Amino acid sequence: MKKTMFVLAIIAFTVACNSGRDKLLSAIRENEKKLFSDTLKKLDTAVAAIQVADYRTFAETYPADSLSPEFLFKAADIANSLGKSQEAIGMLQALRKSYPQHPRAGTGLFLEGFIYETSLHDSQKAIATYTEFLKQYPDHQLAQAAQFSLMQLEQGMSVEDVVKMFEAKGDSTAGLH
């Protein structure tokens, strides 16, 4: 009798957990559809804030779920779009720490550098992050972009300097076509 009660308790707990997961997942999917308003194609900040919270809750509540690393990545992206750059970096770091082998881990590290560079304007942290990215992911599809950003930051080049550099390169190859 006790064994039957124990088994029933485990089944009830499992069903309750799964229904909670399914309910949260359903809310996430619905908000994903609403994230951009249909008329302006502009980020709905209220829905975005809810979505970030739901993504984080899912990842924290169901860390072994295969959706959790992707949801952390998406939450970081949206948080950065909302101007919550430090929060975004924290989520990207959590992604790498908890899911180091996930395909988004490398992209997440690159994005940390990008956020330091463009949103937080912290050149030193951007340089350190891009350097770490290149050390860990030398063959990543974003490696060339990281190398370019490093060069730009280390040489103290402004966006205008970069544009001028590309224009000059364009002029030097114009006669080759």
Structure in a nutshell:
This protein is mainly alpha-helical and 177 residues long. 76% of the residues lie in helices and 0% in strands. It has eight helices and no strands.
Question: How does this structure look, described?
Answer:
By secondary structure, the chain is an all-alpha fold. The protein has one domain (2-172): Alpha Horseshoe (Serine Threonine Protein Phosphatase 5, Tetratricopeptide repeat), CATH 1.25.40. The chain has eight helices and no strands. The protein has helices at residues 2-34, 45-61, 68-81, 85-98, 104-118, 123-136, 143-154, 159-173. The longest helix is centred in the N-terminal third of the chain and has 33 residues, at 2-34. The radius of gyration is 22 Å and the shape is globular.
**How many domain modules?**
1
Percent of residues in beta strands:
under 5%
N-end to C-end Cα span: 86 Å
Radius of gyration: 22 Å
Net shape: globular
The CATH top-level class label: Mainly Alpha
Chain-averaged pLDDT = 86
Please identify, by name, the CATH architecture: Alpha Horseshoe
Would you list the SSEs in sequence order as H and E? HHHHHHHH
Remind me, CATH topology?
Serine Threonine Protein Phosphatase 5, Tetratricopeptide repeat
Bin the helical content. over 70%
Contiguous runs where pLDDT drops below 50 for at least 5 residues: 5-16, 173-177
The biggest sheet amounts to:
none
**Tally of DSSP helical segments:** 8
- The CATH superfamily name is Tetratricopeptide repeat domain
